[in-house]
Amino acid sequence: MNTTILDLVAEKAELPAAQLDPAHTLEDIGLDSLHLMEIALWMQKEYGVVIAEGELHHEQTLGEAIAFLDTRVGG
Amino acid sequence: MGRAAVLAGVGSAVPDNVVTNDMLATRMDTTDEWIRTRTGIRERRHLARGSATSDLAAEAGRRALKSAGVDSVDAVVLATTTPDHPCPATAPAVAAMLGLGTIPAYDVGAVCSGFLYGLASGAGLIALGTAERVLVIGAEAFTTIIDQTDRTTAPIFGDGAGAVVLSAGDQSQPGALLAFDLGSDGDLADLIIIPGGGSRQRASGIPAEPGDEYMAMRGREVFRHAVLRMTESSRAVLARTGWDVDSVDWLVGHQANVRILRAVAEHLGLAQDRAFVNVDRYGNTAAASIPLALDDAAGAGLITPGDRIVLTAFGGGASWGAIALEWPDL
User: Which residue of A has its CA nearest to B267?
Assistant: First the structure.
């Protein structure tokens, strides 16, 4: 799992990264819709990757979201 | 040094009526906590019944003239999304209310970027030699185009006005507007739109749907484009002035949402506490927000003479811009 992306999610959720359960949904860990946009914008700034609206969503688990973002960075 | 438009005075005016988040929560499905965490807004001002944009504009203009120590200007430029009437422009009425005579006065419409477009227009009149002194006002009765039962827009917007006096000078003077960057993208017109009441709807022969007179906004997409464009535009004026980002004392961004302001600072590589914030007290006042923020920050002693300031905005159109200046001793 990409620890840099995980750290960003933890910062947005205001929780220690170690406390985040990959099985929890993004909504469960307390991210709102603007947090998802902030993560998308951060991906654009750091990796030049454009994440479209809806590609990150509240029903995704943290594990699924990180795997998706990893794929985009790798691609 | 070349002829330049120099900021010589600033003023603002807001209605007395404070509307808190808790007051809104009694009218619609929202909470103080939801509004604060999404937007950073705690309260906003609502115009009194019977007042209009020109009333706020004239008061802000009067205070800016006083700040500049002048009682006449050669032109009035009013940035507004909410003119007193669809026709004519509101600026001539404001000029008349201020007793400024039969000078040129016109409105500029670029929604939340309007004040920056107004400054560019005013500076243009000075560059042309058409004017030695211009009063540039941003004023909005924005709550008049907001459905006060819509939880996605009603908590965000407020009413207010701010103004500056620009005087002819040269680029070495404190207050000189040193660099401009402006842009627009009409493919994003539907991000922030009032569907009814314009020629597109009237010429269709189909009556406007109920609610079409109110502004609709695609918030998340606005957030994305605002952060990217405000960052890009700020970088453009930094490149033109040759300023290092670390030398910027204040980023005075359009006050739409505290999270946009923080994200722009982060993307620019600027410390978050360099982004001035007063959206908590006034909400988003569209074209009025930047001069209102400048007057607020200078009045509180936060912005001091010699400070390097980058103004930046994004709004309906879509339109955006940035302007760099060093704060003068007013």
Answer: A45
Architecture field, domain B178-326: 3-Layer(aba) Sandwich (3.40)
Residue B5: cis peptide before it, omega within 30 degrees of 0: no
pLDDT confidence of A4, banded at 50, 70, 90?
Answer: confident
Comparison of pLDDT for B113 and A44, the residue scoring more: B113
Q: Please indicate whether, in this complex, the C-beta atoms of B38 and A34 are within 8 angstroms of each other.
A: yes
Q: Flag residues of chain B having pLDDT under 50.
A: none
Distance CA B9, CA B164 (A): 5
pLDDT at B308: 98
Catalytic residue among B21, B46, B112, B278: B112
The domain spans of chain A are 3-74
| Domains in chain B: boundaries | 3-170, 178-326
Give the pLDDT confidence of B217-235 residue by residue, as tens digits.
999 899 999 999 999 999 9
CB-nearest to B263 from A32, A33, A41 is: A41
| HSE, side-chain direction, 13 A CA sphere, residue B315 | 30
Exactly one of B46, B254, B257, B278 is catalytic; which is it? B254
Quote the pTM value. Answer: 0.94
CATH architecture for the domain at A3-74: Orthogonal Bundle (1.10)
Residue with tokens 């009032």: B194
Say whether B227 and A34 touch across the interface (CB within 8 A): no
The phi and psi torsions of A61 (rounded to 5 degrees) equal -80, 160
Which residue intervals of A1-75 are DSSP H helices? 3-13, 33-47, 62-74
Structure tokens at A22: 């990959």
User: What pLDDT sits at residue B160?
Assistant: 98
Smallest Cβ–Cβ distance between A38 and the set B221, B228, B263 belongs to B263
Rounded to a whole number of angstroms, the distance from the CA of B220 to the nearest CA of chain A is 7
What's the CATH number for B3-170?
3.40.47.10
Considering only CB atoms, which chain A residues are within 8 Å of B221? 53
What's the pLDDT score for residue A6? 86
Report the distance separating Cα B40 and Cα B257, nearest Å. Answer: 6
pLDDT-based confidence at residue A54 (cuts at 50, 70, 90) = confident
Active-site annotation holds for B254: yes
pLDDT at residue A1 above 60?
Answer: no
Q: Does A41 touch chain B (CB under 8 A)?
A: yes
Chain B residue with the nearest C-alpha to that of A52:
B221
A38 to chain B: closest CA residue: B263
